[in-house]
Amino acid sequence: MSDPIPLRGPRCPQCRKPAMPPYLPFCSARCRTVDLGNWLGERYSIPAAVPEEAEEDEAPGEDGDDETPGSA
Ligand SMILES: [Zn+2]
Asked: 40: CA distance to ligand 1 center in Å?
């Protein structure tokens, strides 16, 4: 007897689903991309989508006009 579905085949490391041939050892392109991203992230220590630029601390709704035109 031969089972059409390999119960002991490779599993997707991402979602534990049976891996599919086109995306081995993953089950889908999505899982493959996710895993690749995680792998690269760990390897290069890249923060998960954390924009370092454009970080301006501007308190909204607070007009700090310290420079008063005090002409005596
Ligand atoms: Zn998967």
From this structure: 18
Q: What digits encode the pLDDT tens for the residues 14-69?
A: 999 999 999 999 999 999 999 888 878 766 555 556 566 665 676 677 666 677 67
In angstroms, what is the span from residue 14 Cα to ligand 1's centroid? 5
Amino acid at 26: F
> 19: CA distance to ligand 1 center in Å?
7
pTM, two decimals, is 0.46
Domains and CATH numbers, the chain: 9-47 (3.30.50.10)
